[in-house]
């Protein structure tokens, strides 16, 4: 069954690869892009890149933005360079890609669906994640803006907010001690997997989610509600 054509930005990352693989398995025609083909931290390159791929592939029915950087820096040690780099990749590039996708859809008078990769960090503070969390909270606001302004164009925009997913990223390395602590406190007793996130992305792009718009869906196994290793007065 052919589902349509989708552009996946960040297809080289752990979650991005899983999303691309799941969508191919579901019958989508997938075009993936990532470093070195596109540097999302650079200004003025994302929209032309999306437009070029649109023209080369005859348009897309969906866009997935699954790229991001996750530096761990104390908020008092964060600076403007860090802020600009994180927001450029996590937020500005999503805005540029989404806006160009909307323009192309409207020019071609065709509907579309977008899914952005947000994070539970947008709503939950952790030491060292303030700038990252701010970039994802801003991304959630963009999701609402796209949905509100272009729902009547037949364009939906949603996001997924994973909890921690250990993808072994060289770009965003995480100490093993942190991984172990997250696993120990998990509501379901395990870490999230890229396939967990990919399954929800696939659902959001499909017809069954046609009445879901402007929302960020938690995909965290319940970890956003609390931790089983939190202090307790129970004996």
Characterization of this structure:
It is a single chain. With 235 residues, the chain is an alpha/beta fold. It has a single domain, classed as Rossmann fold (3-Layer(aba) Sandwich). It contains 6 helices and 6 strands, in the order E-H-E-H-E-H-E-H-E-H-H-E. The protein is globular. The termini are far apart. The mean pLDDT is 94.
Task: Put the structure in a nutshell.
Residues 4-168 form the Ketoreductase domain. By secondary structure, this protein is an alpha/beta fold.
> What's the total number of strands?
6
Query: How would you state the average pLDDT, rounded?
Result: 94
User: Cα-atom Rg, whole angstroms?
Assistant: 18 Å
Q: What portion of residues is helical?
A: 40-55%
CATH architecture: 3-Layer(aba) Sandwich
SSE order, as H and E? EHEHEHEHEHHE
What distance lies between the first and last C-alpha atoms, to the nearest angstrom?
Answer: 55 Å
> What is the count of distinct domains?
1
CATH topology: Rossmann fold
Strand pairing plus helix content: what structural class? alpha/beta
**Major beta-sheet overview:** 6 strands, parallel
Superfamily (CATH H level) name: NAD(P)-binding Rossmann-like Domain
What would CATH call the class?
Alpha Beta
> How would you sum up the global shape?
globular
What low-confidence regions span 5 or more consecutive residues with pLDDT below 50? none
């Amino acid at each position: 069954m052919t589902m349509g054509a989708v552009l996946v930005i960040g297809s080289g990352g752990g979650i991005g690869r899983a999303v691309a693989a799941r969508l191919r398995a579901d019958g989508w025609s997938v075009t993936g892009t990532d470093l070195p083909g596109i540097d999302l931290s650079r200004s003025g390159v994302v929209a032309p890149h999306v437009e070029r791929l649109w023209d080369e592939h005859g348009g897309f029915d969906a866009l997935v933005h699954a790229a991001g950087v996750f530096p761990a820096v104390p908020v008092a040690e964060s600076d403007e360079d860090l802020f600009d780099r994180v927001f450029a990749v996590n937020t500005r590039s999503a805005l540029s890609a989404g806006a160009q996708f909307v323009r192309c859809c409207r020019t071609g008078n065709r509907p579309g669906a977008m899914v952005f990769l947000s994070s539970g960090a947008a709503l939950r503070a952790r030491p060292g994640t303030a700038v990252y969390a701010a970039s994802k909270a801003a991304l959630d606001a963009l999701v609402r803006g796209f949905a509100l302004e272009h729902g009547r164009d037949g364009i939906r925009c949603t996001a997924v907010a994973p909890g921690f997913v250990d993808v072994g990223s060289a770009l965003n390395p995480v100490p093993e001690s942190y991984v172990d602590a997250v696993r120990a406190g998990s509501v379901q007793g395990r870490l999230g997997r890229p396939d967990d996130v990919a399954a929800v992305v696939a659902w959001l792009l499909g017809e069954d989610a046609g009445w879901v718009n402007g929302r960020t869906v938690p995909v965290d196994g319940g970890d956003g509600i609390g931790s089983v290793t939190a202090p307790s007065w129970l004996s």
